[in-house]
Amino acid sequence: MSLNVLITGGAGYVGSHVVKTLEKSGYFTVVYDNLSTGRADWIPDAELVVGDIGDQAALSRVFKRYSFDAVIHLAARVSAPESIKKPLRYYADNLCGSIALLKQSRKHQIPCFIHASSAAVYGNPGVAPVGENAPLLPINPYGASKMMAERAIMDISGSSDMRWTILRYFNVAGADVKTCVGQRPENPVHLIPKACRAAGLGQDISIFGDDYDTIDGSCVRDYIHVKDLAHIHLLALEYLAGKNPSIVLNCGLGRGSSVKEVLNTAQRVSGKNFTVNRKPRRPGDAPVLVADNALLKKTLNWTPRYQNVSEIIETSWICHQRLTGRRSKN
C-alpha cells in the first residue's frame, strides 16, 4: 500500500523512527517540523517542511501543495514537570496546535488521522494495568493538554468523514542501534538516556520521591521501545486505510519497572556504577502508570520485538557510547 502521509514532528525522536518505518513500507512522507528538538539529518530521505504547528498559513500551504491520504500528528511538548512551570506553552502547542492541524485536515478532507497522545491523560489511575476506558483525570498541564486534544479530535471528526486512531504512549525509550537517530546524549530529558549519561560520565543521578506506595518506593512506569512504537504507527495507518472504525489504543509493554529498577539495570548493562541521590517528589508525577495493551494487541495484531526494559536499555547504552565516542574524536 502506498499513501502520501503528513507527519508533524517527524524530525524528532519518535517521529524520525516513524518516518523510517513508513518509508521502508513504501509510503511517501512529508515531515512538518520546526526543528526545535528534531534534526533534518535524522530524516535524510523525507520531504521536510520547516514550520510551527500553530501557523495556519504555513499549514495551509503544505496541504495545498501535497495531496495527503493521512496525517500522523506527533508534534508536541512532552515534559510533565516542565508543563507545571509553563502551562500556557503546553496548551498553546499541544491543544491549539492540534486544532490548527485539525482545521486544515477537515478542510482538505483527510480521511485518516493518527494522534500521539499520552498515558498522562489518566493522571493517577489507582489501578495497574490501566485500560483505555479508565477515567481521564490528568494531574498536570501536559496530560490535560493531551486530553483536550483527544476530545477535539473526536468532536471535529463528528462533523466529517475523518476516522482516527489515538495512540496513548506510555514511556518511550531505546534506540535503533544501526542509526542511533533521535538520540541527544549531551542533553537527555528522560530517565533511561539520563541513566546512560550518568553511567558514561560517572555523574550522579536523582530519584524524585522514594516514598511512594510501590514495590520499592519509587515511581513505576511502562517502557516501550521506540522501534516497536514506530511499528504501531504503521499498523494503525493500515488499520485506518482498511476503513476500520476510530479507536483509542494504549501503547506500552503491559509491565512496569520502577525508577530504582531502571537505574540498577542501567548500571548492570553498562558495567558502570553511579551515585543515586534521593530528592523530594515532583508535582504532577503519578506513582504508577502501566498499560493494559490487550486491545492494541488484538486490534493491530501487534507483538513487541523488545520484551523487557533490559533490552531497551541495552540499545540506548550502545548508541550512547557510539555517539559520545564519535564526538570525543571530532
Automatic annotation (TrEMBL):
Residues 5-252 form the NAD-dependent epimerase/dehydratase domain. CDD domains: UDP_G4E_1_SDR_e. Its cofactor is NAD(+). It catalyses: UDP-alpha-D-glucose = UDP-alpha-D-galactose. GO terms for biological process: galactose catabolic process via UDP-galactose, Leloir pathway. It comes from the Bacteria. Pathway: Carbohydrate metabolism; galactose metabolism. It is an enzyme of class 5 (isomerase). One of its GO terms (molecular function) is UDP-glucose 4-epimerase activity. Its EC number is 5.1.3.2. Keywords: Carbohydrate metabolism, Isomerase, NAD. Homodimer. Belongs to the NAD(P)-dependent epimerase/dehydratase family. NCBIfam families: galE. This is UDP-glucose 4-epimerase.
